[in-house]
Amino acid sequence: MRRARAATGTSARRGSARPAFSGRGLKLVARYNFRMSSTIRLEAELLGLPAPDRERLALLAWDSLENDPAWLANPTNDSEGIALATARDSELASGKVVALTHEEFLRRRAVPANEA
Fold first, then answer.
1. DSSP secondary structure letter of residue 19
2. Beta carbons of 52 and 46 less than 8 angstroms apart
3. 30, burial (CB in 10 Å: exposed 0-12, middle 13-18, buried 19+)
4. Which of 71, 92, 94 is nearest to 82 (CA)?
5. DSSP three-state, residue 10
6. Alpha-carbon span 34 to 59, nearest angstrom
7. Which of 5, 24, 43, 104 has most Cβ atoms within 10 angstroms of its Cβ?
8. pTM (predicted TM-score)
């Protein structure tokens, strides 16, 4: 009986038909559920796209975060790392520095056998 009431959104108190959420609370829960289901559908669609499309969307999403004050103010973000990556990106875009090829990066990162 208790499980049935919880599933229908009523209070878990025995004999009570009062909704667990009402008014503004119910609207917030409904909006949250809609957003989550929309996000899950969007994720599935996104992951089904070809790699070049996923890359383009990932870059657009990242660019939107770089200009979002709320995201930048999040204390869990690595602000120093983000600042360094942004500065490096500007250097690359201006032509001040030239990016390494993947092969050159791997060659430079290789650890000599006697140091391993």
1. B
2. no
3. exposed
4. 71
5. strand
6. 26
7. 5
8. 0.42
